[in-house]
Amino acid sequence: MDPLTAWVTALAGPPEGMVMGLERMQAVMARLGLQARLPMPTILVAGTNGKGSTVATLEAIYAAAGYHTAAYTSPHLWRFEERLRLDGRTARAELWQTHLGRVKGASAATPLTFFEISTLAAVLMITAAAADVAILEVGLGGRLDAVNAFTPDCSVITTVDLDHQAWLGDSRAAIGREKAGILRPQVPAVYGDLDPCPSVETRAQTLHAPLYRLGRDFRVDGDGGEMIWEGWGVRLPLPPLRLCGGGQWMNIAVAWASVQVLQKRLPVPIQALAQGTERLRLPGRCQESRPWGLGGPLLLADVAHNPQAIRQLAAFLTARKGEGRCHAVVGMLRDKDLSGNLTPLLPLVDAWHCVNINDTTRAATAGDLIQVLQVLGVGSSTAHPGVPEAVDAARRGLGRGDCLLVFGSFHTVSQLPAAWLVEEG
């Protein structure tokens, strides 16, 4: 655990505690002098999958247009500081310490969760930096999430699918209602589900919030091998993506639509859309690298941890795999749908290496995963104490043309060396 994570964990109390609601946030915001409406245009991004990619796309586009950007995301992969980027750069640890100290002083009489503390400190830094645009990723759900204490100028819901059912409900309709909690009366919203959830649309109608929906108001399509974004009466070619996976085109389409929604307040020239998208990087999202050189296997790292994301990963792997072998290293949290997450990959994986995740008590053990694989008909799989040991074992015998897949959780991918996944430039 890095130093800042340890400090915020100590401030918040037990790290597994999760208490939903906005009352604590609002009380401490008042003591800190923070208003719900920030001084710059603010975009809230919620959704089951695609939030991080959408935030990163918006950040890159506004930076290409010359704006000072602030992007708050969670969770982090390697270090706590990653949760806030100012003008594309990770906020310094000293800056975090200063503003975490302010939150600590203001919350002595109001115990806060880890995420609430992080969110308040990040917003203090964003306002101090006088960013031109704030892009804030919702942590869990929407309605009762700490980020929803702040007022959006554009609300974005990427997708609605099953995840965190213990907190959000056991159906897409229930989860959609929670995510639609970030909508505001008459504030425009962008929704990225090709299979729209009626509860999201109903909430938008109730609030008279204009809802721009993928597949109806804007779309992305292949045209002779070139991807085309269409919306607001224009057709624009999408540049080649560094991010892999078919789902990323949907996230890009949502981000481009969000830029159009805010075009009057934050004008963006057409060339900045392409320039920003071309520069886009986001570690651990269906990401390919070759840490063992051209003669070694391809590493594919993906934080996918719910059935929708796993289906997208399986589709990408099906298209990418070819004739080579695939060995998988998997670690997951026990409150996830273990069987539902493993099943789509069964036909694609030739050997399974299951790991313990050692930095959270929510983790499923390697033995838990092996048991699920056995029930699913996998005759043999191997347990390892952690990701490094599993990767060493899994890559033995693999060469050029083969794939080593590491997936299942942010906690799992974070155990890979950052140098394997962070691109320079």
From TrEMBL:
Which InterPro entries does the record associate with it? Folylpolyglutamate_synth, Mur-like_cat_sf, Mur_ligase_C, Mur_ligase_C_dom_sf
| Protein keywords | ATP-binding, Folate biosynthesis, Ligase, Magnesium, Metal-binding, Nucleotide-binding
Catalysis: reaction(s): 7,8-dihydropteroate + L-glutamate + ATP = 7,8-dihydrofolate + ADP + phosphate + H(+); 10-formyltetrahydrofolyl-(gamma-L-Glu)(n) + L-glutamate + ATP = 10-formyltetrahydrofolyl-(gamma-L-Glu)(n+1) + ADP + phosphate + H(+); (6S)-5,6,7,8-tetrahydrofolyl-(gamma-L-Glu)(n) + L-glutamate + ATP = (6S)-5,6,7,8-tetrahydrofolyl-(gamma-L-Glu)(n+1) + ADP + phosphate + H(+); (6R)-5,10-methylenetetrahydrofolyl-(gamma-L-Glu)(n) + L-glutamate + ATP = (6R)-5,10-methylenetetrahydrofolyl-(gamma-L-Glu)(n+1) + ADP + phosphate + H(+)
Q: Which SUPFAM superfamilies match?
A: MurD-like peptide ligases, catalytic domain, MurD-like peptide ligases, peptide-binding domain
Enzyme Commission code: 6.3.2.12, 6.3.2.17
Q: Which GO terms describe its biological process?
A: folic acid biosynthetic process; tetrahydrofolate biosynthetic process
Source taxon at top rank: Bacteria
* EC primary class: ligase
User: Which GO terms of the molecular function aspect are on file?
Assistant: ATP binding; dihydrofolate synthase activity; metal ion binding; tetrahydrofolylpolyglutamate synthase activity
List the record's Gene Ontology CC terms alphabetically: cytoplasm
Q: Hey, which pathway is this one from?
A: Cofactor biosynthesis; tetrahydrofolate biosynthesis; 7,8-dihydrofolate from 2-amino-4-hydroxy-6-hydroxymethyl-7,8-dihydropteridine diphosphate and 4-aminobenzoate: step 2/2; Cofactor biosynthesis; tetrahydrofolylpolyglutamate biosynthesis
Keyword Ligase annotated:
yes
Q: Where's the Mur ligase C-terminal domain?
A: 296-410
Family to which the UniProt record says this protein belongs:
Belongs to the folylpolyglutamate synthase family.
Q: What does this protein do?
A: Functions in two distinct reactions of the de novo folate biosynthetic pathway. Catalyzes the addition of a glutamate residue to dihydropteroate (7,8-dihydropteroate or H2Pte) to form dihydrofolate (7,8-dihydrofolate monoglutamate or H2Pte-Glu). Also catalyzes successive additions of L-glutamate to tetrahydrofolate or 10-formyltetrahydrofolate or 5,10-methylenetetrahydrofolate, leading to folylpolyglutamate derivatives.
Q: Which NCBIfam families match?
A: folC
The name under which this protein is listed is: Dihydrofolate synthase/folylpolyglutamate synthase
To which species is this protein native? Acidithiobacillus sulfuriphilus
